[in-house]
Structures are given as structure tokens and as C-alpha cells.
Design brief:
The complex is a heterodimer of chains A (219) and B (257). Chain A is mainly α and 219 residues long. Helices cover 85% and strands 0% of the residues of chain A. Chain A has one domain: Methane Monooxygenase Hydroxylase, Chain G, domain 1 (Up-down Bundle). Chain B has 257 residues and is α/β, with parallel strands linked by helices. A 6-stranded mixed beta sheet of chain B has the order 6-7-8-3-9-10, sandwiched between helices. In chain B, strands 2-1-4-5 form a 4-stranded antiparallel beta sheet, covered by helices on one side. In chain B, helix 3 runs parallel beside helix 6, helix 4 packs across helix 6 and helix 6 packs parallel to helix 7. Chain B is globular, with a radius of gyration of 18 Å. The N and C termini of chain B lie far apart (41 Å). Classes of the chains: A mainly alpha (219), B alpha/beta (257). At the A-B interface, helix 3 of A face helix 8 of B.
Chain lengths: 219, 257
């Protein structure tokens, strides 16, 4: 007999809510990059507006977590599940904020012709998305090894970030009339780099959830 | 034999086995109990935790057909082998039970009972012990005006604190508490828990409890027993955050037991 079936179903609901929030954030990022490439202002504004849906989900997760702590007195792994849900929801919320930031950059660039075709940014974004996907799948399946793979990809993202910023700064003299666009693209690179960092943090939270030990993936 | 504290461990239990007739109730228990710490015993009913606690002052000897092997070293003396004065042992290792069990006497006489047995007769000295013991359990202010009233007239929580005062009156080193709050309301329970935290400044406390939160709130070490085995003994913070054994995890999270 499962003596805590109701509690277990609440924990599962909490996890499902978090995954729903994470998938929405993941979509927001994908859409924000497509909107950047296609200079889709309407889509960007939609992403900015829809961020409240993700914020609301975070509040729901926080409320549910608080009620579960208050009513169920969780300990050990049960407690870690709830604490980690709180932590990951915060990472996911900030990932969604970066989708909004990218959308805002797209709006700022407006319909100004791109100084060159945007190729490397989507590559960097795909890497960050892979990290996010890995860390979320690691959370779903409580897979420590998968969580650890985030660190390697994060190094690659950091490397690309450095390279892209250098390249963009090189365009400042060449395209003095497009400083705003160059700045916005540099910001976008920074936002992607942050998304990768948050994904790495999710990986660390997963390792804590499973092992009960803190693990610094960037060490 | 006299009991003097020489080591950090008040008790050192080694390879303790206990049988009730054919029933093997404690299996190879190795258990150090550290001075001035609170050690909590948790586990499902029948796991051996109360039996274990009753071995520490040899109350277990009152149960018929009990056989024990191994060592229970109290301050370096194996109380299973050495010929010892049980009254002296129980003076050093006091016990408080599930339900307050005051003698049908006055509040004063309950607390003075132990010291009188141990030969203290002077009223002034007894007054001192009674006052101090009642103060130690935060009962003094509630009963100072009716010390000679019947102890059975006190509330459940007060009776339990009186019993702790009675145990303290003989100046024990160790206080064994077998589910001391299971019959009390939440406020009386918290008062006893506060008391435990204060008492550990001077005493070593071993508490059996079915209340997980109580174990996590008051103890330094927690021991999980299951079917006569000591499954895990560790820092309480470790047991309740990340226990090593899956069976401990299962029990404290309410998944079995």
C-alpha cells in the first residue's frame, strides 16, 4: 500500500506544472530567435505580452510548493523535490525573461536591414536550446549523467559568445550607421549566453535532487 | 562499582543481541551515545527501539524470559557483566515514560521521592532539590503555591514535567524518554521539547518518538530501527535531509512502516 499516494500525486502535479512552464519558455526562446531572423515585430510583441503567462505559472508553482511544505512536512527526497521545483521554476522564469529580452532587441532593430545574414546566433542558440532540453530531460528522468553534459556544452556556448562579440565589435567601425543594430545583436548574444547558464544551473539542481549533494558544473 | 564519566561516549553498546524467548528482538546493535547530546530513536512499532532504551538502565530485566549478549558499556563499565547496584545505575540513568505517572502523593513528595531513597533527610536540603528540579522543568511558577497538593490534580502536560523533575531530582547523567509527549496536546508537547533542548546542556538524553518532526526538532543524532536492527545512526540533519539507507528514507517520508 502506498501510504502517501495523495502527496505523491501532488508532487507529480508540481513536476507537471514545472514542465509545462519550461516547455512554454523553451518555445518562447525558439520563437524569439525566429522573430529576430525574420524581423517579425508582431511576433516579438506577442512574446513580450505572453510572458505574463509564464510568470503566472511560476507563482502557481511557488504557491503549490509552499502549501505542500506547510501541509505535508516533507523531508529528505520529498523536500528536495519541492525545493528543486522552486529553484528550477526561478531559472525557467529567467530563461523566459531572456526570450522577452531578445524580442525587445528585435523590436529595437525594427525593419532596419541586417548588416549581414544572421547565421552564428542561431547556431549558438541551438546549443543553448540543446542544453535546456538536456537539463529538462534530466529533471524529468532524474538522470545525473545527462545533467552533467550541460557543462561541456556551456563551455562551447561561452566560447562562441566571446567570438561573436569580438566579431560584432569589429563591425562598429565598418557600419557606424548601424551601431544600434550591432549593440542589439551583442545583447542577444549575451541573452543566449545567460540562457545557457540558467540551463547549467537546472542541471546542478537535478544533481542535488538525486544525490542530495551540491555540485558545481562550472568548476 | 561507581559510575564516573571518563569518555565522550556515556554509553558504548557493542554487538548487543536480545531475545524475548525465541524472538530475536535486537540484532547486533553497535551504538555509541554521546555525552550531552539528544539521541532520538525512530522506527515502526515493534522495531526494538523501546526495548533498546530499556536495556540502558536494565529495566528490561523486569521482563521475563529475556536473554542478552554483547556489551552495554556505561562510562566504561559493561553493565551486562559487572555486578552492580541497580539503584545506583537508575539514579544515574533516569527514565520518563509515555504517560505522566506521578505517585499518588503530593507534588513535593513526588520530587523528593528519589532523594529520600538515596538517604537525603534534611528538609532544607530536600526543599532545595525540589525547588531546583521544578524550576529546571519550568513547573515551579505553576505549582509553587500548592506544593503539597496531590500531583494527580495536575494537567497531563504538568504531570509529565513533574515526572521529568522527579527523574532530575536524583541528579542523573542520562535521561531516557520513551515517547514522552505522545499523550500530550501540542502546546504541552512544545514545552517538553523546549525543556529537552535546555536539559541537554547538563544531561545526555535518549528519546523514543513516533513523531518525526519531534525527532528532527530536538535531537542531535537520530537512530532508525527496523525489525530489531539498527539501520542507520547519523546526525539528525543528515537523516532528515539525505539519509544513506533507502529504508530510512522510506520510513521518514512515510512510504512504509
Amino acid at each position: 500500500m502506498n501510504t502517501r499516494s495523495k502527496f505523491d500525486s501532488h508532487l507529480k502535479e508540481l513536476k507537471d506544472m514545472l514542465m509545462e512552464m519550461a516547455r512554454k519558455s523553451e518555445n518562447a526562446i525558439k520563437e524569439s530567435i525566429n522573430a529576430l531572423i525574420n524581423q517579425d515585430i508582431d511576433k516579438s510583441n506577442e512574446i513580450i505580452q505572453n510572458d505574463t503567462i509564464i510568470d503566472d505559472l511560476e507563482h502557481e508553482i511557488n504557491n503549490k510548493a509552499i502549501i505542500l511544505i506547510a501541509k505535508e512536512s516533507p523531508v529528505a527526497r520529498d523536500l528536495r523535490k519541492i525545493i528543486v521545483a522552486l529553484k528550477i521554476s526561478s531559472e525557467v522564469e529567467r530563461i523566459a525573461d531572456n526570450a522577452v529580452n531578445i524580442a525587445k532587441s528585435t523590436v529595437h532593430i525594427g525593419k532596419e536591414k541586417h548588416i549581414k545574414e544572421i547565421v552564428d546566433i542561431p547556431i549558438m542558440m541551438n546549443l543553448a536550446l540543446e542544453m535546456l532540453s538536456d537539463s529538462l530531460n534530466a529533471f524529468l528522468s532524474e538522470d545525473v549523467e545527462l545533467a552533467k553534459t550541460c557543462a561541456k556544452k556551456d563551455d562551447k556556448v561561452d566560447e562562441m559568445y566571446g567570438k561573436l562579440i569580438k566579431e560584432l565589435m569589429g563591425y562598429v567601425q565598418k557600419y557606424p550607421d548601424h551601431i544600434n543594430q550591432i549593440n542589439q545583436l551583442a545583447f542577444v548574444c549575451r541573452y543566449i549566453e545567460r540562457i545557457a547558464d540558467h540551463s547549467t544551473n537546472i542541471g546542478e539542481h537535478v544533481i542535488y535532487l538525486v544525490t542530495g549533494e551540491r555540485y558545481d558544473l562550472n568548476a | 562499582m561507581t559510575f564516573t564519566t571518563l569518555t565522550r561516549n556515556v554509553f558504548d553498546i557493542k554487538d548487543l543481541n536480545l531475545w524475548y524467548g525465541e524472538h530475536h528482538a535486537l540484532k547486533n546493535i553497535n551504538f555509541p551515545i554521546i555525552k550531552k547530546e539528544v539521541t532520538a530513536m525512530i522506527g515502526p512499532s515493534g522495531c526494538g527501539k523501546s526495548t533498546f532504551v530499556k536495556t540502558l538502565n536494565l529495566m528490561i530485566n523486569y521482563v521475563s524470559n529475556v536473554k542478552m549478549t554483547g556489551e552495554i558499556n556505561f562510562n566504561g563499565h559493561n553493565i551486562l557483566n559487572e555486578k552492580l547496584d541497580l539503584v545506583e545505575l537508575r539514579k544515574k540513568v533516569g527514565m520518563v515514560f509515555q504517560k505522566g505517572n506521578p505517585f499518588p502523593q503530593s507534588i513535593y513528595d513526588n520530587v523528593a521521592y528519589g532523594p529520600r531513597i538515596h538517604g537525603i533527610k534534611k528538609k532544607k536540603h530536600l526543599d532545595e532539590i525540589v525547588t531546583k528540579s521544578l524550576m529546571n522543568v519550568a513547573l515551579w511558577d505553576e505549582v509553587k503555591d500548592r506544593l503539597h497538593a496531590p500531583a494527580l490534580g495536575l494537567s497531563g502536560g504538568q504531570q509529565q514535567r513533574l515526572c521529568i523533575a522527579r527523574a532530575l531530582a536524583t541528579k542523573p547523567e542520562v535521561l531516557l524518554m520513551d515517547e514522552p509527549t505522545s499523550a500530550l496536546d501540542p502546546i504541552s508537547t512544545l514545552k517538553i521539547e523546549e525543556l529537552i533542548l535546555e536539559l541537554k546542556e547538563k544531561y545526555t538524553i535518549v528519546i523514543v518518538t513516533h513523531n518525526m518532526q519531534q525527532a528532527s526538532r530536538v535531537s542531535d543524532k537520530t537512530a532508525f530501527f527496523l525489525m530489531g536492527e539498527l539501520i542507520e545512526l547519523d546526525e539528525t540533519s543528515k537523516i532528515f535531509s539525505n539519509p544513506r539507507d533507502e529504508r530510512t528514507e522510506g520510513y521518514i517520508t512515510g512510504r512504509f512502516g
